[in-house]
Every structure is written in structure tokens, then in C-alpha cells.
């Protein structure tokens, strides 16, 4: 009967250099990405947008990068569906969203 070696070797994990990443909700985010996230949160707070915290901003950056780009550029109108949590970039998209799902409540925000 073959013997099993109980000391299995684990693959070596590569780590980012110390100080180059920040941990957010289980993810290691680069300092550059963190700065972008903080800038997005600041813009959301200025606009009075709900979910103006890091996890909401991270959702926007990951799931709706086109909306995040508009918000970071400033001076635009974005909308948020309070029913499903979707970020909507333009009036046309908002109308299409409400046409297909009329029970959803969408709120628009002007980003300074």
C-alpha cells in the first residue's frame, strides 16, 4: 500500500509589494484603483447619490464602468434604479429600463 505524504507543497503565492495595494471587501486593490474609487465616492457624495460608499462605488466601477467614467468626468446626469440597483447613464437608457420594467423606481442625479 502506497504511503501518502502529509506535507503537501502549496504553490507559491505572489504578493504585491508592501504598500502598493489596499484590501477592500476581500479584494486587493492597487493604490491607483483605490484613488479612483475614492474620487468616485467623493463625486457620488457631492451629488447626493445613495450608496455613496466604497462598496457601492466599487459596484459601479466594476459593473457599470461607463457610468463611473461619466461620474468621474463630472457635469453629467446619471440615474440609479432603487429597485434593482442598476446604474443608468442616459435618459434613453432610463426610459428603456422603465419601459421594460415599469414597477422599478429610478432616481436621477446631477453630478457636479
Q: Radius of gyration, Cα only, in angstroms? A: 20 Å
**Backbone shape:** globular
Note the gap between the termini. 72 Å
> Which spans of ≥5 residues are poorly predicted at pLDDT below 50?
none
The share of residues in extended strands comes to 15-25%
Number of helices: 4
Main β-sheet description: 3 strands, antiparallel
Determine the structural class based on helices, strands and strand pairing: alpha+beta
Order of helices and strands: EEHHHEEHE
Summary of the model, kept short:
With 112 residues, this protein is of the alpha+beta class. It is built from four helices and five strands, in the order ββαααββαβ.
Task: Give short descriptive properties of this protein.
112 residues, alpha+beta, three-stranded antiparallel sheet, two-stranded antiparallel ribbon, 20% strand
Descriptive notes:
The chain is α+β, with helices and mostly antiparallel strands. It contains 4 helices and 5 strands; from the N terminus they run E-E-H-H-H-E-E-H-E. The strands form 2 sheets. A 3-stranded antiparallel sheet has the order 4-3-5. Strands 1-2 form a two-stranded antiparallel ribbon.
Task: Summarize the SSE layout with pairings.
Blueprint: E1 21-24, E2 27-30, H1 31-47, H2 54-63, H3 65-73, E3 76-81, E4 87-88, H4 91-100, E5 106-111
Antiparallel strand pairs: 1-2, 3-4, 3-5
Amino acid at each position: 500500500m502506497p504511503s501518502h505524504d502529509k506535507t503537501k507543497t502549496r504553490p507559491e503565492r505572489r504578493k504585491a509589494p508592501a504598500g502598493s495595494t489596499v484590501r477592500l471587501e476581500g479584494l486587493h486593490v492597487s493604490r491607483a484603483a483605490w484613488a479612483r474609487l475614492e474620487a468616485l465616492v467623493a463625486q457620488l457624495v457631492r451629488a447626493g447619490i445613495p450608496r455613496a460608499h466604497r462598496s457601492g462605488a466599487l459596484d459601479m466601477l466594476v459593473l457599470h464602468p461607463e457610468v463611473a467614467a461619466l461620474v468621474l468626468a463630472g457635469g453629467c446626469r446619471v440615474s440609479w434604479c432603487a429597485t434593482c440597483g442598476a446604474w443608468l447613464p442616459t435618459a434613453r437608457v432610463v426610459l428603456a429600463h422603465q419601459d421594460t420594467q415599469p414597477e422599478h423606481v429610478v432616481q436621477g442625479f446631477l453630478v457636479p
